[in-house]
Amino acid sequence: MSDVLTAYPPLGFLNPALAEALKAGVVEAHVPTGAVVFQTADFCKSYPLLVKGTARVVKVGTGSRDTLLYRLHAGEHCLLSAVALMARWRFAAMVTAETDLHAFVLPAPLFRRLVRDVPEFAHSVHLAIARRLEIVLDLVEQATHLRLDQRVATLLLGRGLQLGASHQELADDLGTSRENISRVLETFQQKGWVVLGRRRIEIAKPSDLETLLDE
């Protein structure tokens, strides 16, 4: 339980009865890299408290392309899981383990009880929902108003001056093809804006990428 309380401090405000219910109801889980944690057809019945690793939450498209909604890191709340449990709703999203995951899983009734009876925990969940919605709205705005080269520039600038990722991984994040990403990156390299290597992208001229976004 110390791992859970370190990752999710609001759970430290539980009264003795709720603390005992948490200890009795939580289930420890280990998930290997690449495993599917949640399928689009699943009905959410539990809530993850992630203490180690990173998961990908994607919107499954009608074609061959899926769209990355967000990544879930240790200590963060999952927007879709929280909303699905509180509203008893189902979403067409899939969750996969980007790295090995170590989590503790709350059954739905216990999660709803914590949201109802622990104001500090409820606030942390609601705040996370608001922040995740901002990210999703930004994603919609980018897809609607930005060209692909501008979306790639936004992604690169948001990851720092050096990025360790393949062209396919960037394509998966932006919901496009690897060929399109490679074409944009090669154009950036020809202009001297980036330096490409094997699973490595180094931004040589961030100011030029920022200028591209101002167009």
Describe the structure.
The longest helix is centred in the middle third of the chain and has 27 residues, at 119-145. The model has no long low-confidence stretch (mean pLDDT 89). With 215 residues, the protein is an alpha+beta fold. The protein has nine helices and ten strands. 47% of the residues lie in helices and 23% in strands. The chain folds into two domains: 2-144, Sandwich (Jelly Rolls); 147-214, Winged helix-like DNA-binding domain superfamily/Winged helix DNA-binding domain (Arc Repressor Mutant, subunit A), CATH 1.10.10.10.
Beta-strand percentage range? 15-25%
Number of E-state strands:
10
N-to-C CA distance:
51 Å
Shape: elongated
**Unreliably modeled segments:** none
The tally of domains stands at: 2
Helix fraction by DSSP (H/I, runs of at least 4): 40-55%
Secondary-structure element order, as H and E? HHEEEEEHEEHHHEHHEEH
How would you classify the helix and strand content by structural class?
Answer: alpha+beta
| CATH-level-4 superfamily name of the largest domain | Jelly Rolls
CATH fold title of the largest domain: Jelly Rolls
Strand order of the largest sheet: 2-6-4-5
What value does the average pLDDT take? Answer: 89
How many helical stretches? 9
Question: How does the major sheet shape up?
Answer: 4 strands, antiparallel
Radius of gyration: 20 Å
